[in-house]
Amino acid sequence: MEERDGGYGNTFKDEISDEKGDDGITIENASVVRNDPVQDGTSPPKVDSPTESLHEKVQKQIIKEGYGKEPSKLSTCFLHYRAWVKSTLHKFEDTWQEQHPTELVLGKEKKQMAGLAIGVASMKSGEKALLHVGWEYGYGEEGSFSFPNVPPMADLLYEVELIGFDEVKEGKARSDMTVEERIEAADRRKKEGNALFSEEKLQEAMQQYEMAIAYMGDDFMFQLFGKYRDMALAVKNPCHLNMAQCLIKLKRYDEAIAQCTIVLSEDENNVKALFRRGKARAALGQTDSARDDLQKARKFAPDDKAVVRELKLLAEHEKEVYQKQKELYKGLFGPRPEPPEAKTSSKNFLVIFFAWFFSLFSRIFKRSGHKSD
């Protein structure tokens, strides 16, 4: 399923045109999903759910339920996690912050990831959980050389989200795949995301898109040239654009802008990326930036109805804001009539003052006249 921009039907020949979104645009194929936890991530989340014992040294509390089945041994799992030392609550790793999901092949994990792997093996796609891991299944009695703040015999806390897993290439990590295999795996995830998008399952669709992008990581793209790079971008960029469409529907505008910006870093004149970023910026009130994006999109697609409509909506919004500001400033800086009470009291004061002054002047005049006689 390609992007949902009905107005762009003539511009993008490689997209499926029978799937229409709310804005008439065709939906593309997807990318990196970030379902950041509600908490800010500086400290472990507060979880009220029951604690499930997965192992003598590994316990789990579910933060968000997942769907489907659990991964089997040798499944390639894609996940985000944050890690803390339990005793000090020092955070030493955060893949959300790095914006790159981690790949974990169950049964082939590193020794220090054993506890994390036990937890992941019990999770379903989309599930988010807090794991309590004993030091024996973490960095052991020596601690971590890579993370100096992880001392010897340190129990750990993991906040984990299982984005999804792949069992098609059992036990085969991305680094062991050929270029064609990685592109094929990414394309398969993209198509699964598109199918979920057509069912309005936006979160699930974004998870598939993120898995697709995981196969198209920066380290991989850096090595590609010529036709292979073109093949990879033909999968990767539509994922980002479809991701932006999902995020706009979910009103997560900042993230939608980030997805579009990734595409524009590769293709600065991509009309869909410009359109979606402009739409997201307009929703955030960033009218100048939104106008720049939309006008540039219209330059390359002058007859596109979706772009023209969005520019018209932006102009109407700006006019409405201007009228409201005009009324506000008129009230702030216009002439202020004096309250009736103030006017009345002012007149009374003048009458009394002049009466007193006239009386005083009369007395002085009489005294002066008397002395002169």
From TrEMBL:
Keywords: Isomerase, Repeat, Rotamase, TPR repeat. PROSITE patterns: FKBP_PPIASE, TPR. Residues 1-23 have a biased composition (Basic and acidic residues). It catalyses: [protein]-peptidylproline (omega=180) = [protein]-peptidylproline (omega=0). The keyword Cell membrane does not apply. The keyword Membrane does not apply. Residues 74-166 form the PPIase FKBP-type domain. Its EC number is 5.2.1.8. This is peptidylprolyl isomerase. One of its GO terms (molecular function) is peptidyl-prolyl cis-trans isomerase activity. InterPro entries: AIP/AIPL1/TTC9, PPIase_dom_sf, PPIase_FKBP_dom, TPR-like_helical_dom_sf, TPR_rpt. TPR repeats lie at residues 271-304. It comes from the Eukaryota. Gene3D superfamilies: 3.10.50.40, Tetratricopeptide repeat domain (1.25.40.10). Residues 1-54 are annotated as: Disordered.
